[in-house]
Design a protein that fits this description.
The protein has about 475 residues and is an alpha/beta fold. It has twelve helices and 19 strands. The protein has a ten-stranded mixed β-sheet, sandwiched between helices. Strand 15 and strand 16 form a beta hairpin. Helix 1 packs across helix 9 and helix 10 packs across helix 11. The longest helix is centred in the N-terminal third of the chain and has 17 residues. The termini are far apart.
């Protein structure tokens, strides 16, 4: 059997130790894989000037699949997240995080078996942030129809392959009516093409409450990026924590599987690290490659090890990394998995899930420019004319709360105001330039957003309180 070449990113902190453990287990199980080592992490900063050398991205693109140990992401500064950079650079649009109860790991729940599919590129993870004024920072939340449909379609296709029954969309469309509304509508469009599967939706806050009371009611969850990040860690907590949580980042042309926990520099080099999350991510990778015999055999050996009571300290045991690794290897001979029970097609091959590219949305009705939101800096309520050129002042808000027209509410006002100007006639870009040229010079404007109609439907948000 030919071997599959896989890029191995050892990471930093405990990454090299748990990577070595996984390599040793894979070797003992005779997994038909050849590793191509690649670099990423803090130690790459001085060597290459960034935490993710181009050579590493090239290796993943060439081999189409990678296994990645944790890398350190600075908080509040420093280099960009290596994980996010990899996902964006390779368009790995679906993050897949299984959460399944494991034997020998005591938690509040014994019957958790769900999968999170998280949109992996967009949302606030676009990293588009601005300091609008000294008082106000802004992050743009980007949700697209194509990105939402990609994640949703992958969730439904995976549900079929995994023989799941229900796919649930998680959102906050009651508040974020345009962004989460688009995510929900995109999910519903995709759901209509899978009549053999049940579909429903739930608000993210309700989901969190339901997960910690009756997690067994959920099967496959599909979420926008930020909600998916938070909920997947919550689900990991249901089954024992991030130390037992695998994850995969899936695209059309490549996939990167990773341990989702941190690099734990405080225990690096002490032989205390738990390799289970990276090992389970490796098992997830084997199933992606169609190497199901090897995946099942390693997972059963891990389960036998946990049943025997051998665990690392983070799980309540006293085994070190080496002892835990060798215990799993010793159980490989005790597994009941027989290679003869697997079809040849299941022993090597590409992912069974192929998601075709989504066509870009075309406006069904005339897309017309009808107004502008202009964000201005002011230390108090701005005094603006009622009209400028073809546009009339229709609303002013502060921190998302409407403060004009009407009685000014008794609230804290910061130094950034959103001022909405609209027109009863279709506008041109020249009309907007004319407006800006005649805007009161005593106010500094920070940025603008053009407002549109699609047919008779306004394609812009309303301020809270309207």
């Amino acid at each position: 059997m030919s071997k599959q070449t896989v890029t191995l990113i050892k990471g930093d902190g405990i990454g090299p130790e748990i990577s070595a453990a996984v390599k040793e287990i894979f070797s003992a199980a005779n997994v038909p894989i050849e590793w191509e080592d690649a670099e990423a992490g803090l130690y790459c900063i001085e060597r290459y000037g960034n935490g993710l050398p181009q050579e590493t991205l090239d290796s993943i693109a060439r081999n189409k699949v990678a296994l990645k140990a944790p890398t350190t992401t600075p908080i509040g500064g420093g280099h960009k997240s290596i994980n996010v950079t990899i996902r964006k650079s390779l368009d790995l649009f679906a993050n897949v995080r299984p959460s399944k109860s494991l034997p020998g790991i005591k938690t509040r729940f014994d019957n958790v078996d769900l999968i999170i599919v998280r949109e992996n590129i967009e949302d606030t993870y676009g990293g588009i942030e601005h300091q609008q004024t000294p008082e106000v920072a802004q992050a743009l939340r980007l949700i697209t129809r194509s990105g939402s449909r990609n994640a949703s379609r992958y969730a439904f296709e995976m549900a079929r392959v995994e023989e799941r029954k229900t796919v649930t969309c998680v959102h906050k469309a009651n508040i974020q009516k345009m962004t989460d509304g688009l995510f929900l509508r995109s999910f519903q469009e995709v759901a209509e093409t899978y009549p053999d599967l049940k579909s429903n939706d739930i608000l993210i806050d309700n989901l969190c409450m339901q997960l910690v009371t009756r997690p067994e009611q959920f099967d496959v969850l599909v979420l926008p990026n930020l909600f998916g990040d938070i909920a997947s860690d919550l689900c990991a907590g249901l089954v024992g924590g991030l130390g037992v949580a695998p994850g995969g980042n899936i695209g059309r042309d490549a996939a990167v599987f990773e341990a989702v926990h941190g690099s734990a520099p405080d225990i690096a080099g002490k032989g205390l690290a738990n390799p289970m999350a990276l090992l389970l991510s490796g098992v997830q990778m084997l199933r992606y490659l169609g190497l199901n015999y090897y995946a099942d055999r390693i997972e059963q050996a891990l389960r036998l090890t946990l049943v025997s009571g051998i665990k690392t300290r983070d799980l309540g045991g006293n085994a070190n990394t080496r002892e835990f690794t060798h215990a799993i290897i010793s159980e490989l001979g005790a597994t009941s998995i027989a290679k003869a029970d697997y079809n040849e097609v299941d022993t090597v091959g590409p992912s069974k899930i192929i998601i075709p590219p989504e066509p870009l949305t075309q406006a069904n009705k005339p897309w017309t420019l009808v107004g502008i939101d202009i964000f201005i800096q002011s230390n108090g309520m701005p005094q603006l004319p009622q009209s400028i050129g073809k546009l009339k002042l229709s609303m002013i808000s502060n921190r998302g709360t409407k403060i004009y027209p009407g009685i000014l509410p008794d609230i804290l006002l910061v130094d950034c105001f959103r001022c909405r100007w609209t027109s009863s006639e279709v506008l041109s870009n020249d009309d907007i330039l004319d407006f800006l040229n005649n805007f009161p010079k005593e106010y500094t404007w920070v940025h603008i957003e053009k407002l549109h109609n699609e047919g008779e439907t306004p394609m812009y948000s309303k301020a809270q309180g309207e």
